[in-house]
């Protein structure tokens, strides 16, 4: 190519656009296929590998969870470990042997080996079909493996953990990647070749580097990086550069379009973020195990009450789920209880000063191990049976009103002696489309029973302070729920969201969001959230 | 009043609006008068009190700066200290004796006593005119006092520091408050009585509490609190509730109106903040000694370059100045150098990983004590004398261009062996209206000489990473500079800003702002700031 005249910029753009369209088509078609060869039914190693079951996976009782970054601390050799990781490459050495590279966060990688024996398969002996299956997993799929840590014959230089390797004995596919990625990890980790952000219309595809660097993998333009946002973020170089910051300006109304501020933005229209929800999920798709953010969020709601503001500070967290969504619930509950206990210890003087002006009772917190967690159904039952008369007929499939919440807070305080508690398993009618349905309940429940979600709220003095839960992590399941909510999956804002789940495999995850101003106000028992904000914004007030 | 029928809501609002207008008028008239009786010219204590001179104040050589919150650590009795504080009350006991209450941050208060003797005035003996002058200082003025710490006859229960008092020997007024405050501190520290935020139009005034609570000082509505934002923030209860968070939505284009995003906002128009500049200054007016913030800022600039984004994260700091603006310069310079040194120590692996993809040289930092600080004039002279030919005629009264900055960076590296340096004393033509002019230079300089400011930029590898300086803290001076920049002081956004300086006395202060994404990008030598942002926003790009 060096001799040929370089193609004109316009022609190059056109060619890139075409390449993208084709890549996108291929990717879409591929996503509908099984991502790798199916488990062979008569394989004696059946059960030790395959698509992850919906029920919890059973590992060896001796297996430990150890992160790769902790391999240098202590003796791991000979241990049986469980690793949840991105499979970034796989290759077969022979019909009996496959090598994979597994990656946790950043560039924490290790080599895995699966070796079939002719002995009967057991915990320590994969079968040939299992080896073949592992070698066929699409790169960037998310897997969980059980393996024994051993010393390689010689250091594995390609991997950051070079002095150990994993002898794989079980391997399950938690989230498959498509066969063709919009951008490979190798490309994502190369220098961006072009920062021109002129809009082209197409949405995916890899641009071959025009410079003649024949040795490396192709590099991509910034446009391609951003169109393949999850792969962009998975690149170790990108994870080394930046921390998560959700944007305020967004290109489409994200969650349905109501109560969103819109504004002219050069040749297009911009919207103000109503929450960092989609973006923190993109971080999980982008290979982070846990992220948090502190950022303003905006609600164009014409509510002139002491509980509402049009701009407030959102504290958000999102995390990978290892086994069960209750990991998210326990973590958030623990964080809040820790904060409530510490804040009084550290800021006693300030809190007492506030109480001298705005009297409030001390907050009752549960003893460790005595945390109160009600299901939504239990909470409604409590209200029906012991609450005020007007709540005698509250339903299990309808969200709680603010007066209901306050009445529940009084009942919980009286019965359980705590001002802080969790209400779990909200009905799907009360949650957005991305809330994961509770599979266990659905299977065993009667016809017409209320569908509930793995979603919860946390309350303080009868007021909601945190909303969280597990999110759907499979694109088809997501589309079903989006349609069930009467939203078109192809509508602006929604399409790009679902597309991220098709671009790559996304592990199970969940999280929660806190309104900082509200949690401060309710903790201190203030009469208005406007006192907790430093410059409260209401439908009528933008100054100072 | 208890017997009379309560006035209708509408009538009450009208009356309140009228009261506010009158209060505002009185306040404005008053601000133009001397805030307290003038120093008597034949007073032998002359020089120990009065309006602060523009030259540095000379204190006793033994005097120490000790904050009230540090009074409990160590033996302060008998020490001579310097305290910069808000004078919150003053009263005369007799012609020979005045009591004041002095407040630092929050509710850190102490009693001060000034006692005149008939002996010749000296360091330890105020005169009667001095006592009278101190007693006449308007509440909420900002003063600096030199005093001896002594034990009071009995504990001063009204003050948080109750077991000590200050025997005042010198007292200077740094920033006078008006005789009539829009809201007193006592009112600001009472519970807000009304959260109705219906706009009224008028901008100041105190509303008498309608409830019959005859014992306390009058309480005020949230509207009055927000219209008197500095007093609202000075209230200890408010400082105990919240930390500084600048808003993104603002009611007027702040700094001139260009490059600002605007949007429909219910019945009015809203703008997106271009910087937290005014708000961090309001915090200093509101009685904080130092504030910082991390918040998005927005620029509606149609610049499609690797250096520009329409949304980025601003790191901002603002602080009270004790003696000289170089305190701000040294602090910011020290913070940056500390970060640069630590970040390489802590994140060496990540930085080397980034360098393996985006090669960059190691950053040269100055040895402690060898920091490079050029004046703008020196920098331009260097460019003229030793820079590329095209910069042979750069002027001292014109801002540097990006190519000039880069050429300067190369020259400084070559001459001083550092990639980090400060350029100070920018010409007033290159700075916004709120930049404080360098008084010392103006006095001694020739007719027609370039007016310079106490403002600086900090550079890394020839690119600006921080902009900072001293701000004007007197409203009249501010108005002069606003007019000199061709802006109407009564224009939206500007009027409210100047008004805050009229509402209360604001101490000398300064600060700086950093673009987080740029500092990361230039530190790592990245080809575009878009790589440092997690979701870069450009005029053409809002997705994902």
From TrEMBL, chains A, B:
Compositionally biased tracts (Basic and acidic residues): 13-31
Pfam families in alphabetical order: tRNA-synt_2
Compartments, record wording: Cytoplasm
Keywords noted in UniProt: Aminoacyl-tRNA synthetase, ATP-binding, Cytoplasm, Ligase, Nucleotide-binding, Protein biosynthesis
Region (Disordered): 1-44
E.C. code: 6.1.1.12
Domain Aminoacyl-transfer RNA synthetases class-II family profile, residue spans: 290-544
Domain of life of the source: Eukaryota
Reactions catalysed, as given in the entry: tRNA(Asp) + L-aspartate + ATP = L-aspartyl-tRNA(Asp) + AMP + diphosphate
Enzyme class: ligase
CDD domains the UniProt entry points to: AspRS_cyto_N
Keyword set includes Signal: no
Family: Belongs to the class-II aminoacyl-tRNA synthetase family. Type 2 subfamily.
Protein name: aspartate--tRNA ligase
Annotated source species: Podospora pseudocomata
């Amino acid at each position: 190519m060096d001799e040929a005249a370089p193609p004109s910029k316009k022609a190059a753009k056109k060619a890139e656009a075409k390449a993208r369209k084709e890549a996108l088509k291929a990717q879409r078609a591929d996503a509908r296929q099984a991502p790798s060869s199916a488990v062979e039914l008569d394989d004696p190693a059946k059960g030790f590998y395959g698509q992850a079951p919906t029920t919890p996976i059973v590992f060896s009782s001796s297996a430990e969870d150890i992160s790769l970054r902790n391999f240098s601390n202590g003796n791991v050799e000979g241990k049986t470990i469980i690793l949840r990781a991105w499979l970034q490459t796989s290759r077969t050495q022979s019909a009996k042997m496959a090598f994979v590279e597994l990656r946790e966060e950043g560039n924490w990688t290790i080599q895995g080996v699966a070796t079939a024996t002719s002995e009967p398969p057991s915990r320590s002996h994969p079968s040939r079909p299992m080896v073949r299956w592992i070698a066929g997993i699409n790169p960037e799929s998310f897997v969980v493996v059980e393996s024994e840590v051993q010393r390689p014959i010689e250091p594995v230089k390609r991997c950051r953990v070079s002095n150990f390797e994993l002898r794989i004995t079980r391997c399950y596919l938690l989230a498959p990647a498509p066969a063709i990625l919009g951008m490979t990890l190798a490309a994502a980790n190369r220098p961006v070749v072009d920062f021109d952000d002129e809009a082209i219309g197409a949405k995916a595809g890899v641009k071959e580097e025009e410079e003649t660097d024949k040795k490396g993998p192709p590099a991509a333009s910034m446009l391609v990086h951003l169109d393949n946002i999850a792969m962009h973020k998975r690149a170790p170089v990108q994870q080394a550069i930046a921390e998560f910051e959700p944007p305020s300006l967004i290109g489409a109304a994200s969650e349905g379009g109501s109560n969103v501020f819109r504004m002219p933005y050069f040749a297009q229209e911009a919207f103000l973020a109503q929450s960092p929800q989609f973006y923190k999920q993109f971080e999980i798709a982008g290979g982070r195990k846990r992220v948090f953010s502190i950022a303003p969020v905006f609600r164009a709601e014409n509510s002139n009450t002491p509980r509402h503001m049009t701009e407030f500070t959102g504290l958000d967290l999102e995390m990978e789920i290892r086994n069960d969504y209750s990991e998210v619930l326990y973590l958030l509950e623990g964080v809040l209880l820790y904060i409530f206990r510490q804040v009084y210890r550290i800021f006693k003087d300030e809190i007492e000063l506030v109480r001298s002006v705005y009297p409030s009772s001390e907050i009752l917190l549960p003893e460790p191990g005595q945390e109160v967690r009600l299901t939504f159904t239990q909470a409604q039952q409590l209200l029906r049976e012991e609450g005020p008369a007007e709540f005698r007929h509250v339903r299990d499939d309808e969200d709680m009103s603010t007066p209901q919440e306050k009445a529940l807070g009084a009942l919980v305080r009286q019965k359980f002696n705590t001002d802080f508690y969790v209400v779990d398993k909200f009905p799907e009618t009360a949650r957005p489309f991305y809330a994961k349905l509770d599979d266990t309940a659905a299977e065993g429940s009667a016809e017409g029973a209320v569908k509930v979600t793995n979603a919860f709220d946390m309350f303080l003095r009868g007021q909601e302070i945190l909303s969280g839960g597990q999110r759907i992590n499979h694109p088809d399941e997501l589309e079903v729920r989006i349609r069930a909510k009467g939203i078109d999956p192809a509508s602006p804002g929604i399409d790009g969201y679902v597309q991220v789940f098709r671009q790559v495999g996304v592990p199970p995850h969940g999280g929660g969001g806190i309104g900082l101003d509200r949690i401060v106000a309710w903790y201190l028992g203030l009469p208005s959230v406007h006192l907790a904000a430093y410059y409260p914004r209401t439908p009528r007030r933008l100054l100072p």
